[in-house]
Write a structure and sequence with these properties.
Length: 204
């Protein structure tokens, strides 16, 4: 079955501009920082940061988090499904700031829980907000995003694939039938049957 496109490149651009305006309206730019969750949350965070900086004229710190060892399922994964570790990049003081965490897809909430835990290892922010490009539901933890690009009601046997220009050569969000993702996570790509990388699916 062919993947169903729910956001094309122009949709993704418009969505990020809208989210940036919402961030400015609700959080302002004073003591604000934007932090992306590896992998596809990081380039989305960079775009949002640039949009917010352009709208406000303020320099907005940007960071990226790797949450590989903060997940609560690392020890339960098969050896060939262990996460790829990437460096976290938080080069600013977290204490007292409003931090907007950015991920591509919100699913069970476990990736976000891990990201919050990782973030607090760097300091104590005044508040943490969550921005996601897509929310597919099926939450297992009591988490709700503050900024949502698109709500995507899905079945558990569907897969949400996100492609971003910086990593995949295009911006696109699609829904496909397939095994439910377990978050190749903020750390890897879902792969097609032939082994070729496809856009990352749901960040749990």
């Amino acid at each position: 079955m062919q993947d169903r496109v729910v956001l094309d490149a122009s949709d993704v651009r418009r969505t990020l501009v809208r989210i940036a305006h919402e961030i400015v309206e609700r959080a302002g730019a004073e003591e604000l920082a934007v932090v992306g969750i590896h992998r596809r949350g990081a380039p989305l965070a960079a775009r949002l940061r640039d949009q917010v900086a352009e709208l406000t004229g303020h320099e907005v710190p940007l960071g990226a988090l790797d949450i590989s060892f903060y997940r609560d399922d690392v020890g339960l994964r098969a050896a060939d499904a262990q996460p790829v570790v990437r460096a976290s990049e938080i080069e600013f003081a977290v204490d007292g700031r409003t931090i907007v965490l950015v991920d591509d897809v919100l699913y069970t909430g476990r990736t976000v829980r891990a990201a919050i835990e990782a973030l607090f290892d760097y300091g104590r922010p005044r508040r943490v907000q969550l921005a996601v490009l897509a929310d597919r539901g099926h939450r297992e933890l009591p988490l709700r995003p503050d900024y949502v690009g698109k709500n995507l009601p899905t079945a558990r046997d569907e897969r949400v694939n996100v492609s971003v220009e910086e990593l995949d050569g295009r911006d696109e969000v699609t829904i496909a039938r397939g095994p439910a993702a377990t978050d190749a996570g903020a750390n890897g790509d879902h792969r097609s049957a032939g082994g070729a990388p496809v856009g990352r699916g749901e960040g749990e």
